């Protein structure tokens, strides 16, 4: 994980993939309020050199809407969501570094059908603030 990753700010030889709309859960570290979001974005930067690969990732955080001075909280993902995220990441690695033809339909949707209350709170979304969302 690397919380300093920025979209479109790649080192030479690196590739980027933004996984949009993953389903994540959050808990406020101050008031313990819990919420879910179907708009969690994950940024991956990856490279391959001398037969060895490196992947850096950044999951964009969200802040509690109940606290007056909230902290940005890390998302938590279910095992099913993690499997879908990793599936899509592997497909992108195959495309970028092994030149395997990947169709958009090969990528799986990572939003799990669960009720999410209310609209996306852009003011408290790190991804929105950084122009990713």
UniProtKB/TrEMBL annotation:
Topological type in the membrane: Single-pass membrane protein
Name of the protein: RTP3 protein
Protein keywords: Membrane, Metal-binding, Transmembrane, Transmembrane helix, Zinc, Zinc-finger
Source organism, top-level taxon: Eukaryota
Record GO cellular component, one term: membrane
Stored InterPro entries: R-trans_p, ZAR1/RTP1-5-like_Znf-3CxxC
UniProt gene name: Rtp3
Signal peptide: none
GO function term, MF aspect, one: zinc ion binding
Domain 3CxxC-type: 21-131
Localization (cell): Membrane
Biological processes annotated in GO: detection of chemical stimulus involved in sensory perception of bitter taste; protein insertion into membrane; protein targeting to membrane
Annotated TM spans: none
